[in-house]
Specification:
Number of strands: 24
CATH topology: Jelly Rolls
CATH architecture: Sandwich
Shape: globular
Strand content: 35-45%
Keywords: Isomerase, Metal-binding, Zinc
CATH class: Mainly Beta
Largest sheet: 7 strands, mixed
GO molecular function, one term: 4-deoxy-L-threo-5-hexosulose-uronate ketol-isomerase activity
Distance between the termini: 43 Å
Catalytic activity: 5-dehydro-4-deoxy-D-glucuronate = 3-deoxy-D-glycero-2,5-hexodiulosonate
Radius of gyration: 18 Å
Helix content: under 10%
EC number: 5.3.1.17
Number of domains: 1
Function: Catalyzes the isomerization of 5-dehydro-4-deoxy-D-glucuronate to 3-deoxy-D-glycero-2,5-hexodiulosonate.
Structural class: mainly beta
CATH superfamily: Jelly Rolls
Length: 279
């Protein structure tokens, strides 16, 4: 089973008077992983498609053709995949690879078929996918977290000690415009991306996970001088337009996957926001 929801773009002026309910409806994806289902969101922010593929007793394949005006899903797109669930498999144009937890994959434009399966239906793989338009075919690459040297940043004093694993990044593999990575906060740390920033040349989507049932994330968004927030639970996602800050604080430590696309693939291309300008 597959479903895809479309979300449209918004000006910062649009959200100025949004209620909590309206803000959540436009920018929060409350359910990403559903057993036996492909659940996708198509945001018109840089036309990113993201979501969860959770195979159980049957294989799942993303099939999007008429919806995108193409003959097959990745005819004019590239895609990143990271598994955050049980062990599974990904079969790319007939080539099958095992995908344990934290394994990732970059899949280039022109790939005709990607099929997802789980090793154990009772402990299914949870494949988080992100796909964006692409103009060139780059090689498909399997990515293991064990082969990535993380960026270690933050400190206990500021409650933001974390490791950033860059999966789809020029240091690891080529892509057209997709960047994708995995951030893990250390126990005792709660903040990510603070001091915060915007990047006018890229949008971003976050999915938060590794959270307990009763913990929550306060995901900060909006213009730096008019911030708002989304209260989020485990395995929920947020859309971050290019004009919005994207920062979060949790009631405990957590992990998240970030995916970006836009004008360039320079990770450090961002506009920092001084703390005294946040409102």
């Amino acid at each position: 089973m597959q479903n895809m929801e479309t979300r449209y773009t918004h000006s910062p002026e649009d959200i100025r008077h949004y209620s909590t309910e309206q803000l959540r409806k436009e920018f929060l994806v409350e359910q990403v992983f559903v057993p036996g289902v492909i659940r996708l969101t198509y945001t018109h922010n840089d036309r990113m498609i993201f979501g969860g593929v959770t195979p159980t007793d049957k294989a799942l394949e993303i099939v999007l053709d008429k919806e995108l005006g193409v003959d097959y899903f990745l005819e004019r797109r590239e895609m990143g995949v990271i598994n955050i669930g049980g062990p599974g498999f990904i079969e790319i144009d007939g080539q099958k690879e095992a995908m344990k937890e934290q394994d990732g994959y970059y899949i280039g434009k022109g790939t005709r078929q990607v099929v997802f399966t789980s090793e154990d239906a009772a402990n299914p793989a949870k494949f988080y996918v992100s796909s964006v338009p692409a103009h060139h075919k780059h090689p498909n690459v399997k990515i293991s977290i064990d082969s990535i040297k993380p960026m270690e940043t933050g400190e206990p004093l500021t409650l933001n000690q974390r490791k950033i694993y860059q999966y789809i990044h020029p240091n690891v593999c080529e892509s057209c415009q997709l960047q994708m990575g995995y951030t893990i906060l250390e126990p005792g740390s709660a903040w990510n991306t603070m001091p915060t920033h915007t990047h006018e040349r890229r949008m971003e989507a976050y999915v938060y996970f590794d959270m307990q049932k009763d913990t929550r994330i306060f995901h900060m968004m909006g213009k730096p001088d008019e911030t708002k927030h989304l209260v989020m639970g485990n395995e929920q996602a947020a859309i971050s337009p290019s004009w919005s800050i994207h920062s979060g604080v949790g009631t405990s430590n957590y992990s998240f996957i970030w995916a970006m696309c836009g004008e360039n693939i320079t990770y450090t291309d961002m506009d920092m926001v001084p703390m005294d300008q946040l409102k």
